[in-house]
Write a structure and sequence with these properties.
- The structure is a homodimer of 429-residue chains.
- The first copy, chain A, is an alpha+beta fold and 429 residues long.
- Chain A contains 18 helices and 10 strands.
- In chain A, a hairpin with a 4-residue loop joins strand 2 and strand 3.
- In chain A, helix 11 packs across helix 15.
- The first copy, chain A, is globular.
- At the A-B interface, helix 7, helix 8, helix 10 and helix 15 of A face helix 7, helix 8, helix 10 and helix 15 of B.
């Protein structure tokens, strides 16, 4: 971790422990105020992964916050995305560059990690529109659809330094699953042949090469960089996106695909969580509906047919990606200058082409994220929590085969509805 | 020019005039030595454009060099590309960051600008293989086929600062020709309707948007950035690429397309230069052959069928793009890891896919470069030197129609031979 080491050597950096953390908070009015000044009986919980991040939840009688260290790009992306989408990004109270320290909102209970909610079978009726809102705003406003080339390249240069995190992603998403790699694992012995088949699939390898190059080369927008269902905290009313430590300028489809792909994983895991009390059939339908709505709300297609179907669909009308584009088409955005795209029909055609390309990118990256969670190093709790290995393998195999087919055939899909039909067609042995 | 202004304000910068230039050379051993120490009777010619660059040719009895000021990215790219391809990039003798000054080789007569040679009807039998060599090496060795992500992103971040030059390109290549812009011009009144048709061509505008986004977003390799036939100095034996002041990390096809597109412009201009002494028919065939060979030598396809056809085709065998790829496939390149692309058949498929995509990018960018030279601000001497405006317009119209068709249909071409046939089909009224 050369970057982290360099950061440590910055003047003024010292890793905090609980005692020095309290002293730091006392000396920092922006943080002390969030705890209501009640600093003598703080409860401090260390919740970091013991590796890259020091993470503390700090509670007083009168308030709460989270402190993270070693998190420059996370802080930077949080602040940027929070400015663009305050409803779904937690507030940063304080950032200390020299200490690589952020003090931020503690996302309090009853918020839970979305992935856990999906495993428990909880419906989140606002999830699709909240996430569409988040993705539309963070991606659109950090792209050349909204920014001048000068501003865009400034951002690109800044986040080039987060290269260690990008390298990690490259390895675990785009490389290891397609080769014999030390830390790859799968539900053995059931999926051994399936994992071997991935390593021998020439067509899949040609597709993943294209996505890998796009991931590294294409600075389309400032991404969250790790937008799976473990990076989202939810209640039925609230959706908060956290942990953008992998933030970088990359292809938009990587964020969108991460979210949709992890929902598809959740879908295929449901049979493993079904029991006599709940066969999960209705819940599976809700997941598919959420996948479909997320893309449709984001892309703003099909809004007309959905208007009035429910109280939650209308607000999207003004925040979806294409709506933002229309609203800001006369701004500083470099990509589509009004004197060139000078009729509403031409602009509509350009938008359709752009969104189709984004759709196919999202499907590609989404399926790559699915594959790596089944045959790569890091698995997901959706499947891991299925105790019966044979049953787990069966769920995983369906997801894997579905993902392989999407990755190879993604350019044939014309709508998210077709993808949903495709997903369902793999939902059997 | 905010970047240039900032550069001027750097400590130590002062613009040189002839007197202070001589003093600078006397105080700089690396430069004085190149003039054989004969500094008392220097001949100095100011050959800059009076705008961005101060350029001086300095001659003594015993040597020569060129001094340029305001050229940080040019110096940086020259040094990088010279290291990769010393045969076709002039040597940098001295670089002074604070003064934004480079001292470099004076490309001596009988070298002339290639564009002038093409207008005069001079054949350069080594041009195709020299340029294929230059493009293969500079592009391959600055891409993820050869470099780690870490090194690649360092380079990307560095050249993000050359944004002013990128913005200029965006405007004159990808924007102005497709809208009413103040400085657009064409051979009026003959081409007025043709220029208007470009501004009303929805299909063309959708394609140019895709290329423009790729130009800004896709950091595939360190490009020359302005590789037209005016940036190349030639003799029958020597090919030297100069003036990379637009250098940045962009799509490889932009450099390749610039070169090929300008050769196609030269082709269509020939009828305007024909006279009773020389109908230029043989020369036109040579240009087409040079276009075809340049791509084939670069991509290394068809080498087998060409082997032994002439003394100049063999050396290419070891320097073309795919040969470099094969030679360095076990190096640090991040894009195609050997444990994944683990059979020669699979690697060949990956290379074919990569080169096909590069071919289509090159055709797209090449045709965009042609269009802008006919209906945009900056025209080419190939056409401008045709005095009869009606004849000039006729040549330009063929080139324009050819370029429009390539831009729209580029993905249908499977070989450069098909492109040549296509070009010839437009060579009539």
């Amino acid at each position: 971790m050369a970057a982290a080491a360099a950061e440590q050597q910055q003047q003024g950096f010292r890793p905090l422990d609980e005692a020095s953390l309290v002293a730091y908070i006392k000396a920092t009015p922006a943080l002390a105020a969030r705890l209501g000044g009640r600093l003598d009986a703080l409860t401090i919980k260390e919740v970091g992964d013991g590796n890259l991040n020091f993470v503390y939840i700090v509670l007083s009688d009168a308030g709460s916050l989270v402190i993270k260290q070693r998190a420059y790009f996370e802080a930077s992306a949080l602040q940027k995305h929070r400015g663009l989408c305050p409803d779904h990004v937690p507030e940063v109270y304080h950032f200390d560059r020299a200490m690589s320290l952020i003090g931020m909102r503690y996302i309090e209970p009853p918020h839970i990690i979305l992935r856990k909610g999906l495993i428990a079978g909880v419906e989140y009726p606002l999830l699709a529109e909240h996430m569409a809102d988040y993705m539309a705003k963070t991606l659109f406003f950090t792209s050349l659809l909204y920014n001048s080339t000068t501003d865009h390249k400034k951002g690109v240069a800044q986040y080039c330094d987060n290269v260690e995190m990008c390298r990690l992603t490259e390895q675990v998403v785009f490389s290891d699953p397609y080769m014999l790699a030390k830390y790859n694992r799968c539900t053995s012995p059931f999926l051994d042949n399936d994992a071997a088949a991935v390593r021998e699939d020439a067509e899949l390898k040609l597709e993943i090469a294209e996505l890998k190059s796009m991931f590294i080369e294409r600075a389309q927008a400032l991404l969250h960089g790790d937008l799976h269902t473990g990076s989202i905290m939810v209640t039925p009313d609230s959706t908060q996106v956290i942990d953008p430590e992998f933030a970088f300028y990359g292809p938009m489809g990587y964020d969108i695909g991460a979210f949709l792909g992890n929902l598809i994983l959740a879908y295929f895991s449901q049979d493993g969580h079904a029991d006599q009390a709940n066969d999960r059939k209705a819940y599976k339908k809700w997941i598919l509906k959420t996948i479909e709505d997320s893309w449709n709300f984001l892309s703003n297609y099909g809004i007309n047919t959905k208007m009035g179907m429910g109280k939650h669909t209308c607000p999207l009308y003004t925040t979806a990606f294409v709506e933002l584009w229309n609203k800001h088409k006369d701004g500083n955005g470099e990509a589509y200058l009004p004197p060139i795209y000078n009729s509403s029909e031409l602009l509509r055609l350009a938008q359709k082409k752009y969104m189709t390309s984004l759709f196919h990118d999202s499907l590609g990256f989404g399926s790559a994220k699915m594959i790596r969670r089944i045959v790569g190093i890091a698995h997901v709790e959706d499947f891991e929590s299925i105790e019966d290995a044979s049953k787990r393998a069966s769920c995983e195999r369906r997801a894997l085969n579905c993902a392989k087919a999407i990755l190879k055939g993604r350019r044939q899909f014309e709508s998210i509805g077709q993808v949903i039909v495709h997903v369902q067609s793999f939902d059997r042995d």
